[in-house]
């Protein structure tokens, strides 16, 4: 680690030592024995500015305490029919590991509808996957490989991406991205974008130069379903189902025969293991006679803190989307489209 980075971590550590006992206790729970690496993540997210990283970390700790995030894995979404509905409309799951032992997650960006439950359930589900990843998946991978593995790989499937859907899902997508940006920084090593339609590729060409180099290096847009490139870093068994052949992009529905292979499906091993883990945690904390409580686990989402560069990027995307739509006679379909710059 470079000297400047070490000095920044030492300064941030000294500031954390001045926090009250409740915050320091929450920090110990969150870092799981890796305080230096955790502080480094927050520093990277704030360009190694100690004061800004300190504020971000304290805000995160307070958010976790105020919203009982430490207990969220004991709050499974019930009944199971509702859990299945969430999984059918929020396409997100783990497909396996890279050859280096890094967990691989896939997201069906283009065909997630978020229309079968309230926004609270989708936020709850997303945070639960984050927490299960951090508390169960990553520690197990680190133990298996004898080294710290603190981030994952994400494959973003753009199959079915439509301009009108961007506006309709603006609230939930902004909410989820805000939760990740402010409370789970630097948890993704690389984003691989697959099955990208023309509208995305065109916007990406414009936006890419505006991104910081660190962010730009994390994003790779692959040809087609990305199968050949992804097989260089993972075995076929870990390849997301949407990448196994051209035209195999995400689907909202899975038949009984392929649901076990579909990492978005509630029947997939990852979701089955996670859901069973949560039920066990719930049974260990609740009255053993009482049924698991129904109702979503409401989490307050902190207000984003936009910076000039982010606003510029969002405005550029808006302009490019409207330009592409106008060129293709689709302007009416995106009229009123404004991406949230938060």
Automatic annotation (TrEMBL):
InterPro entries according to UniProt: CRAL-TRIO_dom, CRAL-TRIO_dom_sf, CRAL/TRIO_N_dom, CRAL/TRIO_N_dom_sf
Protein name: Sec14p-like phosphatidylinositol transfer family protein
Pfam family, any one: CRAL_TRIO_N
Upper taxonomic lineage: Eukaryota, Viridiplantae, Streptophyta, Embryophyta, Tracheophyta
Signal sequence extent: none
Domain CRAL-TRIO stretches: 79-240
Gene3D superfamilies with a match to the protein in the record: CRAL-TRIO lipid binding domain
Organism: Rhynchospora pubera
């Amino acid at each position: 680690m470079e000297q400047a980075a070490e000095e920044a971590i030492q300064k941030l550590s000294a500031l954390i030592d001045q926090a009250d006992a409740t915050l320091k206790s929450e920090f110990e729970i969150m870092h799981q024995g890796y305080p230096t690496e955790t502080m480094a993540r927050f520093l990277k997210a704030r360009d190694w500015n100690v004061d800004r990283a300190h504020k971000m970390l304290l805000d995160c700790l307070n958010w976790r305490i105020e919203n009982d995030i430490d207990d969220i894995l004991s709050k499974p979404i019930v009944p199971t029919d509702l859990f299945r509905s969430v999984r059918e409309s929020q396409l997100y799951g783990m497909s396996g590991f890279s050859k280096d032992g890094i967990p691989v997650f896939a997201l069906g960006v283009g065909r997630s509808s978020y229309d079968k439950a309230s926004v609270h359930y989708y936020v709850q589900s997303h945070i639960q996957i984050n927490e299960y990843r951090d508390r169960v998946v990553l520690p197990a991978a680190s133990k298996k490989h004898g080294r710290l593995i603190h981030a994952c790989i994400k494959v973003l499937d753009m199959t079915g991406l439509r301009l009108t859907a961007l506006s309709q899902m603006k609230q939930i997508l902004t909410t989820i991205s805000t939760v990740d940006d402010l409370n789970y920084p630097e948890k993704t090593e690389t984003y691989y974008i697959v099955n990208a339609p023309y509208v995305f590729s065109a916007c990406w060409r414009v936006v890419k130069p505006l991104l910081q180099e660190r962010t730009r290096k994390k994003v790779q847009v692959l040809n087609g379903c990305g199968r050949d490139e992804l097989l260089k870093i993972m075995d076929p068994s870990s390849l997301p189902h949407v990448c196994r052949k051209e035209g195999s992009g995400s689907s909202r529905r899975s038949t009984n025969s392929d649901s076990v292979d579909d990492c978005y499906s509630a029947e997939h091993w990852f979701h089955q293991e996670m859901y069973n883990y949560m039920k066990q945690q719930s049974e260990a904390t609740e009255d053993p006679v009482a049924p698991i409580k129904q109702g979503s686990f409401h989490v307050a989402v902190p207000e984003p803190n936009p910076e000039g560069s982010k606003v510029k990027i969002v405005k550029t995307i808006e302009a490019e989307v409207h330009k592409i739509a106008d060129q293709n006679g689709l302007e009416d379909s995106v009229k009123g489209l404004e991406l949230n710059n938060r």
